[in-house]
What we know:
Distance between the termini: 31 Å
CATH architecture of the largest domain: 2-Layer Sandwich
Radius of gyration: 15 Å
Order of helices and strands: EEHHEHEEEEEH
Strand content: 15-25%
Amino acid sequence: MGKTKEYSNGEVTIVWKPDSCIHSAICVKGLADVFRPKEKPWIKIDAASTEALVKQVKACPSGAISYYMNGADDNEAESLETKVEVLENGPLLVYGTLNVTHKNGSEETKNRTTAFCRCGASQNKPYCDGAHVDKGFKG
């Protein structure tokens, strides 16, 4: 497992897994005052409300940023409706709780948002790793 960093405002903690990021920039486009990739630390958690932070984190297609409410059990992922979205020139996003069976038979549960590779170039199949950008994938 790669490194993780946590940022908390007392109510919510954002967890960042840089090795999972596919650099979609959805976080930056959605909350530019919070997600500032050219600064350190790059997440300015006090720049938005807890509600706005949670909403934006839920939009992360790779799961590189996630959250948990401080002092609370988070059962929300179990209640998410499953939804599929095709990103233009990018991955297939599946929202909700999924049980993924890999080609070697191993299984894992993915919560919230999972980005699946559509271009075939990912080194982390079946998941997207952002390789579609360098490949110039159209679709």
